[in-house]
Design goal:
about 325 residues, about 15% strand, Rossmann fold, five-stranded parallel sheet, 11 helices, alpha/beta
Length: about 325
């Protein structure tokens, strides 16, 4: 089907932020079926966007092949030739995309970009009491509105369709997924304590599926799987992210950090429980369609939150925000 409007979207990283574009892009596609929407991002997320409506297309870009200003000039030229966009929306607003926007405009293609309000985010970690920050979903939708595509977001609306889940037999084992890693150390529950969570679930007869990425994470997950009955590592065993998402959708519950796996799980109907340390759910990064009831966090620490993204090391040196008993986590999971 030929469409006269062709919208190009840019968001290269981080993975969690890319996954947060998915509900917005999916809603946009449904509300503007006469528009071709092309998402430009890292190749490894392509399988997720393949599940969006059929007017959503995907271009995976290896940024190492487009270094410096000459590389970006070449990238913009290739995108214009391939997509022939009528407008571009920058959902990233980093140096790379800041340079790309005027290149598109020189070719006669109007652009808009996300407004991150960095001052508000800096104030968030210093001013008390905490106030709800604008969510990333709202920021993406706001940017699209500025380019002429206002979109209505309904968190109660599933992003993807899933088969109806059969009732779980009361006598059957709980199937629980655990994603113990995050991009930054201040967002990771201490691994020796997480292993205790795995051990307690194993003792209760649960089936536990471990998620992660990379050689080091795979090795550790294999060690845990070898030590405890009913524990299986899914790291490196599935063909793509969509397959990971499908496995998550089949589980009774999913435990994650404030991480990309949290946002991946939120695209499914799985019951989700999340652990928060240095960051805070009011910072605008709660997953799609969920609220603070899914969060396990300490609310008695004046030092928390100390970071929007969790990239800063703990200034007290003991990561006391993650001093949460494994037994409490298991109790919440089994509820």
């Amino acid at each position: 089907m030929a469409r006269s409007k062709r919208l190009l979207l840019l968001r290269f990283s981080a993975l969690g932020d890319v996954l947060m574009t998915v509900p917005v892009v999916s809603a946009l596609a449904r509300q503007y079926p006469d528009t071709d929407i092309t998402m430009v991002s890292r190749p490894y997320v392509e399988s997720i966007f393949r599940r969006c409506p059929d007017n959503v297309h995907f271009i995976g870009v290896n940024l190492k092949e487009y270094r410096g200003v000459p590389g970006l000039v070449r990238l913009v030229g290739e995108l214009c030739e391939r997509v022939r966009p009528t407008c571009v929306c920058d959902l990233h607003d980093v140096l790379r995309t800041k340079l790309m926007r005027p290149m598109f405009r020189l070719r006669g293609v109007p652009t808009a970009h996300i407004w991150k309000d960095r001052k508000a985010r800096r104030d968030f970690i210093t001013i008390r009491p905490l106030t709800q920050q604008q969510t990333s979903f709202e920021r993406y939708a706001e940017a699209l509105s500025r380019i002429g595509f206002p979109v209505t977001l309904d968190p109660s609306e599933p992003v993807f369709s899933w088969p109806e889940r059969p009732e779980r037999l009361a006598s059957g084992p709980l199937r629980i997924g655990i994603a113990p890693f995050a991009a930054h150390a201040a967002k990771i529950y201490p691994l020796e304590r997480m292993e205790r969570v795995v051990a307690l679930l194993s003792q209760r007869g649960a089936r536990v599926y471990l998620f992660g990425a990379g050689d080091e994470e795979r090795e550790l997950m294999l060690q845990w799987a070898s030590r405890y009955d009913g524990v299986e590592s899914a790291v490196g065993t599935l063909p793509d992210m969509a397959a990971e998402m499908t496995l998550m959708a089949s589980l009774d519950a999913m435990l994650t950090m404030d991480s990309s796996n949290m946002h991946l799980a939120a695209l499914t109907p799985v019951r989700l429980l999340t652990l928060w340390g240095a960051t805070h759910p009011l910072g605008g990064f709660l997953p799609w369609g969920r609220d603070e009831r899914i969060c396990i966090q300490r609310s008695d620490l004046p030092c928390r939150p100390c970071s929007i993204y969790g990239a800063k090391p703990c200034r007290l040196g003991d990561l006391r925000c993650m001093d949460i008993a494994p037994e409490e986590i298991v109790k919440r999971l089994c509820e």
